[in-house]
Amino acid sequence: MSEQDTQLKKGRLGVLGIVFFVVAASAPLVGMTGAVPVAMLAGNGAAAPGAYLAVGLVLLLFSVGYAAMSNRVTNTGAFFAFVGRGLGTNTGVASAFASIVGYVTIQLAIYGFFGAIVAGEMAARFAIDLPWYVWTLLAWAIVTGLSLLSVDVGAKVLGVLMVLELLSLLVTAVVILANGGPEGLNFGASFSPDQIFVGGFGGGAGIAIAFAFASFIGFEATAIYGEESKDPKRAVPRATYWAIGIITVLFAVTSFAMVSGMGAGKIFDEVIARSAVEGVPLANPAGVLFSLADQYVGTWMSQVMSILVISSLFAGLLAFQNATSRYFFAMGRGGVLPKRFGTTNKAGAPMMGVVLTSALAAAVIVYFAAAGLDPVLNLFFWMSAVTAIAIIFVEILVSVAIVVHFMKEGGENVWRSKVAPIAAAVGLVLGEYLLMSRFNLLAGTVPDGVDPSLPESAWQMNTLGWVLVLSPFIAAIIGFVVASVNKKENSSLVKDILS
User: Fold this and answer.
1) What is d(CA 241, CA 425) in angstroms, rounded to the nearest whole number?
2) What is the mean pLDDT of residues 236-263?
3) Sequence-distant (≥ 6) Cβ neighbours of residue 187 within 8 angstroms
4) Are residues 398 and 80 in contact, defined by beta-carbon separation less than 8 angstroms?
5) Residue 487 maps to which CATH number?
6) CB neighbour list of residue 232: distance below 8 Å, 6 or more residues apart
7) How many Cβ atoms sit within 10 Å of the Cβ of residue 182?
8) Between 318 and 368, where is the model more confident?
9) CA 434 → CA 205, 252, 385, 421, distances in Å?
């Protein structure tokens, strides 16, 4: 096997290309239409923008140590290589298994949402009434094909979609903020600490922060593309800061514009009115942003956004397909998976990783379709909630690994090697607690008769809820055991982790 067969093509991506992949993975328009209205109504109301800003600041702290570590590790394994460098190979492999759960489930969640949205749009606009899974499988075929091509082709596709998506959000936000809304710009209602944390972590504030953490999933993929970047020592840190900065500002500013457009004093009534379908609140959460765009910018903008939600979902599918397949590639090259997974095709793409990622997605899509399960209430909500748990768990391990690594090796200042990673770990542990305790609300997995929006309902889940919430940890345990038992092949991971 030649050296080229086990290496991803270098020099394909600059900072901008990596940022496109990462911001696409966060699907900002989907977050604004799906998560923010729920964070407002079930969470801390007008202070939801402050929750998004607070979470963004925690993740910026995380990015300090993350960027410092990326100067030491530049292979496509990213998280598991970081964890392995600081906490040992076995723990690194455990984190890789948990990460794969996170990336596989978020792609599945997006496939469900994509199919539902496209089916609705095609039926309404063109009278083409086909089941959701037809559109999902069509997207699956296109995503699989693109991901088998060189990664820069994917970056160009994502670039066009991302520019349009960001412009639609920015234009809408600027117009609303310039107008001021019915009550003017009330910064205190949205960004004052006493408002952000109203209701406490067990109540409204905790719910809003949990949704905010879930909305940021995807930024951590910057290091996955280090091996394919033009200058990984500089590109990955810069891309990480840019990606988190863009996502934080976009979420905070746009959600603040939404609050301003409705009026902070009547936010709950407005969210209910704009999102309700046949009297059911949040049955159409996208209606909040779309109605505001229609009201302040024009009908054309809401129509454009309804199309761009689809392109945003597609961009997320492509981004997570790339991320997952590169995890499989790194694990194949390291000997945890069969060595065939550690090879690339002529275009430089991790072919076997792409095939496995697509096969898993196809199997789940077909199962949900055959079982008659709902693509949004079941596939989207179940899988996206699992993703949030898995990725935050691995980010905590990464923060600890960074501190341990630099305590052993030195080479970084106190801020980058200790203070920022430790502060990030504390914030992430709090976020993980909130995500797990509020999993019943995120995923809709509650016992009969339990209202998940009430503070006393924290940790109350049905059997399915417990299985889903524990799945990343179970995967990590399996990964640790596999790495511990398979010592002969696992020894080849050392080079990858120390590269």
Assistant:
1) 18
2) 89
3) 256
4) no
5) 1.20.1740.10
6) 70, 74, 226
7) 13
8) 368
9) 10, 20, 12, 20
Pick from 49, 109, 38: which is nearest to 391 by CA?
A: 109
User: What are the tokens at 280?
Assistant: 């059911």
- What pairs with residue 277 in β-bridges? 280
- CA 52 – CA 32 distance, rounded (Å): 11
- Round to whole Å and give the CA distance between 104 and 113: 15
Longest dimension (CA), the chain: 67
Specify the higher pLDDT residue, 71 or 400.
400
Burial annotation 93-123 (CB, 10 A radius, 16+ → b, else e): bbbbbbbbbbbbbbbbbbbbbbbbbbbebbe
3-state SS of 60-79?
A: HHHHHHHHHHHCCCCCCCCH
At residue 289, the pLDDT reads 93
Residue pointed to by tokens 């109504």: 41
CA-based torsion, 246, 251, 257, 260: positive or negative: negative
Q: 3-class SS at 56?
A: helix
Q: Which residue has the higher pLDDT, 72 or 428?
A: 428
Tokens (6 digits) for 417: 């090697």
Structure tokens at 361: 């997605």
Instruction: Decide which of 441 and 484 is more confident.
Output: 484
Burial class (CB in 10 A: 0-12, 13-18, 19+), 469: buried
Residue scoring higher pLDDT (188 or 492): 188
Which structure tokens are listed for 95? Answer: 């984190």
Phi, psi of 422 (to 5 degrees): -65, -45
* Residue in 200, 102, 215 with CA at minimum distance from that of residue 437: 200
Helix-, strand-, coil-residue percentages of the chain, each rounded to 5 = 80, 0, 20
Number of domains in the chain: 1
50, 36 contact by CB (below 8 A): no
pLDDT at residue 225, as a whole number: 63
- The residues that bridge with 344 in the sheet, in sequence order, are none
For 204-225, how does the pLDDT look when each residue is reduced to its tens digit (9 = 90+)? 787 788 778 877 876 666 666 6
**In degrees to the nearest 10, what's the CA dihedral of 93, 98, 102, 104?**
70
CA distance 182 to 424: 38
Query: Span 176-184, mean pLDDT?
Result: 93
Quick: pLDDT tens for 2-48.
444 545 455 556 677 777 767 766 778 888 887 888 889 878 889 99
Residue 56 belongs to domain spanning: 4-498
Contact between 38 and 256 under an 8 Å Cβ cutoff? The reply is no
Contact assessment for residue 214 and residue 391, using Cβ atoms and an 8 Å cutoff: no
Is the pLDDT at 497 greater than 60, yes or no? Answer: no
Token code pair at residue 23: 């911001």
C-alpha span between 206 and 428 (Å, rounded): 13
